[in-house]
Amino acid sequence: MKTSFKFYSDPSHGWVKVDRPLLVSLGIIDKITAYSYQRGDFVYLEEDQDLSTFCDAFVTKYGKEPVLVHMPQSNNQSRITNYQRFGRA
């Protein structure tokens, strides 16, 4: 089971990269907002609401907090904001 996840940020926001199948297995895929982004089979959870939803579900299922690995902060707008807004497609 994967327990660490990359946290990306720019001067205005942050996101955690999570596999879409994990969100399904945690039963929260329908709780993720359009403030998060997606690319391929990854969802980039926004830090304000969706990350909390993920962490709460992770703790409930696995009994421990996920480890967030902070990547170097970008000084410019993150390319994540150019990815597709989250949807269930």
Commentary on this structure:
The protein has 2 helices and 6 strands. The chain has a 6-stranded mixed beta sheet with strand order 5-1-2-4-3-6. The chain is α+β, with helices and mostly antiparallel strands and 89 residues long. The longest helix is centred in the middle third of the chain and has 13 residues, at 50-62. The protein has helices at 20-25, 50-62; strands at 4-9, 14-19, 37-39, 42-46, 67-70, 84-85. The mean pLDDT is 93. The protein has one domain. The radius of gyration is 12 Å and the shape is globular. It starts with a strand and ends with a strand. 21% of the residues lie in helices and 29% in strands.
Keywords, separated by commas or semicolons:
6 strands, about 90 residues, single chain, globular, six-stranded mixed β-sheet, about 30% strand
Brief rundown of the structure:
With 89 residues, the chain is of the alpha+beta class. The chain has 2 helices and 6 strands, in the order ββαββαββ. It has one domain (12-85).
Largest sheet, spatial ordering of strands: 5-1-2-4-3-6
Please indicate the count of domains: 1
Low-confidence stretches: none
Q: What is the succession of H and E elements?
A: EEHEEHEE
Q: Which percent bin holds the helix content?
A: 10-25%
Report the span from N to C terminus.
25 Å
Count, helices: 2
